């Protein structure tokens, strides 16, 4: 029987390119890109597993890529000060080829959450590895990203699913908050406390509906990525009544009947809107954080059942499909769902470590 912890660490390490990049799914052609968000959580999982060299190599790769494109930030700042319009194509991309080039597909490239995740991930690497000297290797990109997020955190952008680019998303704001807050332990950021207070205040005013958090400003649905407001980005405590109400709604709306996997959001049609392995692990991470070990282990066991005979975890499974008729359309377009997905393996490692076993 495959040891899924060991297999997951192996999959992440073997999936890493020599230059440090993490393609989202090495065996799935469409996902031969490295997303800052996916890669950061993969690097974090490796840090959690004690694989600090591999994690550092990813952040070095991000550093090189971001430094190459930081001229965009300066251009954006100048345009804003001159009162000129800012268009989505002018912003930093959040996914790159493994060689470090911007992607060319018509996907939602302007996503601020990846940059928040990067800052958070670097801070966690410094904390977990104890190698605070590493900061000097990536300081240039870190300081550039800090400026980028301080200046543009309130801009509309695509969410972490590459969708809804005309909105401001709660999970994105949580990632930006967590990144700025985390890195401020290591880098002096002028006015960071004021910015953090602004972001949190905005979320409390604009992103709460009926006592719980909502997907985006103007979209009252619950999305499983709302877990980010507490784990890992720490905008709100896990026992905050609004967080508890959000988790209750996730359980009611997005967990397959019978205690199965977690879906993204109501009405999701991507591969029919199946249950996501990484989100199921994420919900388990939340429960582990608030001390509900029994529910956390139930979710971990569901994740473990999704591994194939070789121990590979997919992106999602066709369970409790939101839009069943869309499943065949996506299979016809891209083939069977991505497997292995590095982010799925990463979140399994994270939740297992959170449960210490």
TrEMBL record:
Keyword tags: Hydrolase
One of the Pfam families matching this protein, by short name: Glyco_hydro_15
Keyword Hydrolase belongs to the record: yes
Domain called GH15-like: residue spans: 19-282
UniProt-recorded Gene Ontology molecular function terms: hydrolase activity
Domain of life according to the entry: Bacteria
Name recorded for this polypeptide: Glycoside hydrolase family 15 protein
Species this chain originates from: Tumebacillus lacus
